[in-house]
Amino acid sequence: MKAITALLLGAGSRGNFIYGPYAEKYPNDLTFVAVAEPDPHRRAAFATLHGIASEQSFVSWEQALALGKIADAVIVSTQDRMHFEPAMKALELGYHVILEKPMSTLPEECISLEAAASKYGRLLMVSHVLRYSPFWAGIKNVIAEGKIGQITSIQLTENVGHQHMAHSYVRGHWRNTALSSPIILAKSCHDLDLISWLMDQDCTRVSSFGSLMHFREDQAPAGSAARCTDGCSVEKNCPYSAIKIYLETTEPNYARYISNEPTPANILQALKDGPYGRCVYHCDNDVVDHQIVNMEFEDGANATFTLSGFTRHIARTVQIMGTHGEIQGNMEEGCFRTYHFASGQCISHQFDITHDGHGGGDNHFVSSFVDEIRRFNTAQNSGLTSAAASLQSHLIAFAAEQSRLSGGKPVELSSSFIPLGQ
């Protein structure tokens, strides 16, 4: 069967470490014929690896899409505030589209993208890849089979991990709402999507509380320096030391995100010159470091989502309470247990967690996209994470941020709900 051809917009972490490797591993499924990336090293490296001609390598997405339709699909993996325009243009040109989450940083643009996918009869799949992981798919199946009765409550916790928090949301690309988006949208629309999917009904009301409690200048310990490499007197005992995170931590390998050639010398230079060497208490970050979101659904069920940057490990844990049973699970352990009230039986479900990212969701997501294109029918196929399926989680995120900024005041969702733009 003919491989699906694709144009990659943004050869950053997702482009280089998810979509590129998938095409290498499954060349009969996906082939890249063009790339747009402003960083010359990343652009050249991706083009070389995938045999892309120089005339098909572009500095910007505008240049790439100016050629018209040159492939079957476009993968938009640019920064958050650069999602809407290229995705909309690609749909207009007749491309099928993978769009990195969030769809947009503005609610009205999310709604417009969902409408455009329908208008142009194209597949627009949002990278809510967790739906495709065996762990979450397994939980969905147990619920669908009625094993725990009707869901009354879901509690989902995202343990961001203290190093990941410092890397991405204090020093990194997603540290500042004006530059990217609120963390509840940038990071946790994944989790809100899972809750929405598992509940399988409309969310009617949202409230939220959270703040930037720790990563602030007034919390800086005495003797701290502007950079970890500036002879900081507390660096060796600081859990957020950039030297520890980028030079001493190998798993996960954060260093590969701050240098195109992450040798010790290059990493150290990046810490001295770039944003990732800054003290976490002396950055320009403003996104919260912890937040809770409360949701009410149309049948009276509710859900609570907790986000925290102050955890040892990166992990998602879940508890789903039903009228006839309960599910408890840990995604990073690849295990959930189903408890049946009537029989007292406990069933363990264990999944392989050694393969690709997001618990296996990344590869399954791309594979599903390829399959959906091959059998595409505008009347039937929209994908598990289509724009229509993903829209509610985005609106919940916008409502949560609106509530948080108002001191936790509940926000009502309705068919006409459009939250305040960020």
UniProtKB/TrEMBL annotation:
| Molecular functions (GO terms) | nucleotide binding
Q: Per its UniProt entry, which superkingdom is the organism in?
A: Bacteria
Pfam family membership, one: GFO_IDH_MocA
Q: In which organism is this protein found?
A: Paenibacillus baekrokdamisoli
**PANTHER family xrefs:** BILIVERDIN REDUCTASE A, BINDING ROSSMANN FOLD OXIDOREDUCTASE, PUTATIVE (AFU_ORTHOLOGUE AFUA_4G00560)-RELATED
Q: Which family does it belong to?
A: Belongs to the Gfo/Idh/MocA family.
Q: What is this protein called?
A: Oxidoreductase
Which InterPro entries did the record assign? Gfo/Idh/MocA-like_OxRdtase_C (IPR004104), Gfo/Idh/MocA-like_OxRdtase_N (IPR000683), Gfo/Idh/MocA_Oxidoreductases (IPR051450), NAD(P)-bd_dom_sf (IPR036291)
